[in-house]
């Protein structure tokens, strides 16, 4: 199941066709309704969410729409569609993708210099690597530079098993986060409540932030950063909503 970082919205935005948004219990969970009509996935299935909290998040996105529907702002709705339609038929492939991100995890590649950047990486990434080994049994090899370093096969197998142990909604979130951060470790940390979504996002762009402090940032790059930060914050809300 390919997961892309970022999203491009279609040129023609559909007009809002409803007035009221509500959440109602159903035999399959909780449904979001627009003027009493149940929201459906792109393939036509009823959008049934496993918890009221998650359904409320989807409902808030629909309620926030103006005269036209801005699909790019509906992060929870899009991820819910993935969890319902893409994940069930591709659980093994999705777990393998998560393991592949772990195999080249961003947090394992420390800069060779300058010293200030190396110190910042060590302060931010080191505690997450230590936590993953102590709490989850995930031992990663740390390197300096960008040359690929194979990670222990046992670690990658444990990551895949962890992914497969999750339900479809949590697995969708883990895969999304791994791609968003370029790091399965950061995605797992958000899943487990070790990091907030925004804290994980900041750790995923330590190098970028360091360069921005030195050279500045243009408006387009700033807009992209804030869009991705919003997706990271959504991911945290997604995982917490699944807790009930």
Automatic annotation (TrEMBL):
PANTHER family (alphabetical): ATP SYNTHASE MITOCHONDRIAL F1 COMPLEX ASSEMBLY FACTOR 2, ATP SYNTHASE MITOCHONDRIAL F1 COMPLEX ASSEMBLY FACTOR 2/ATP12 PROTEIN, MITOCHONDRIAL PRECURSOR
SUPFAM superfamilies: ATP12-like
Native organism: Phenylobacterium terrae
Pfam families associated with the record: ATP12
Name of this chain's protein: ATP12 family chaperone protein
Ion transport in keyword set: no
Source organism superkingdom: Bacteria
Keywords of the record: Chaperone, Transit peptide
Family, similarity comment: Belongs to the ATP12 family.
Gene3D superfamilies reported for this sequence: ATP12 ATPase, ATP12-like
InterPro entries with a match to the protein in the record: ATP12_ATP_synth-F1-assembly, ATP12_ATP_synth-F1-assembly_N, ATP12_ortho_dom_sf
């Amino acid at each position: 199941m390919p997961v892309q970082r970022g999203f491009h919205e279609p040129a023609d935005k559909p007009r809002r066709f409803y007035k009221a948004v509500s959440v109602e219990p159903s035999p399959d969970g909780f449904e979001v309704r627009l003027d009493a009509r149940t929201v459906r996935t792109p393939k036509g299935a009823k959008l049934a969410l496993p918890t009221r909290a998650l359904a409320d998040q989807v409902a808030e996105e629909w309620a926030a729409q103006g005269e036209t529907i801005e699909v790019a702002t509906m992060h929870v709705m899009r991820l819910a569609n993935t969890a319902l339609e893409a994940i069930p038929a591709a659980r093994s492939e999705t777990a393998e993708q998560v393991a592949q991100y772990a195999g080249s995890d961003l947090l394992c590649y420390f800069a060779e210099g300058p010293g200030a950047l190396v110190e910042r990486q060590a302060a931010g990434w080191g505690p997450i690597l230590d936590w993953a080994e102590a709490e989850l049994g995930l031992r990663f090899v740390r390197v300096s530079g960008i040359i690929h370093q194979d990670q222990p096969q046992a670690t990658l197998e444990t990551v895949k098993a962890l992914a497969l142990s999750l339900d479809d909604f949590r697995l969708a979130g883990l895969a999304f986060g791994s791609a968003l951060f370029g790091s399965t470790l950061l995605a797992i940390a958000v899943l487990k409540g070790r990091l907030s979504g925004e804290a994980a996002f900041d750790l995923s762009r330590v190098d970028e932030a360091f360069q921005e402090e030195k050279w500045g940032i243009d408006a387009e790059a700033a807009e992209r950063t804030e869009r991705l930060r919003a997706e990271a914050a959504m991911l945290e809300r997604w995982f917490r909503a699944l807790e009930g």
